[in-house]
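Human: I would love a firmer grasp of how sequence relates to backbone shape in proteins. Could you go through the record with me and say what the backbone is doing? Here is the record:
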Amino acid sequence: MLKKLLLIALLSGLPLGMVNAQEDQLNPEPEITITHDGEATYYEYRVGGILKEIKVVPVVGEPYYLVPQGESGELIRAGEPTVLTPKWVLFSW
């Protein structure tokens, strides 16, 4: 009797493990690769081997993001306005 209950418990847990394995395949873990050079640190963010964005942290200045655009994969700066306006200081006291 105990063996039958144990067997039923083990077999009932099998489909749950299969569902979790399928979910892992549908939602792969993101991969972050960190690269340093003399001018900046680059954080490459990939999901399923596909590049999603690059965070660039320069030694001097603000961090910014590069994201692939369209089918060509050309990287553009995210968050940049499409129209550049002059930002001159005319008066300061």
Q: What stands out?
A: The two ends are 90 Å apart (CA to CA). Strands lie at 30-36, 40-47, 50-58, 64-69, 74-78. Helices lie at 2-26.
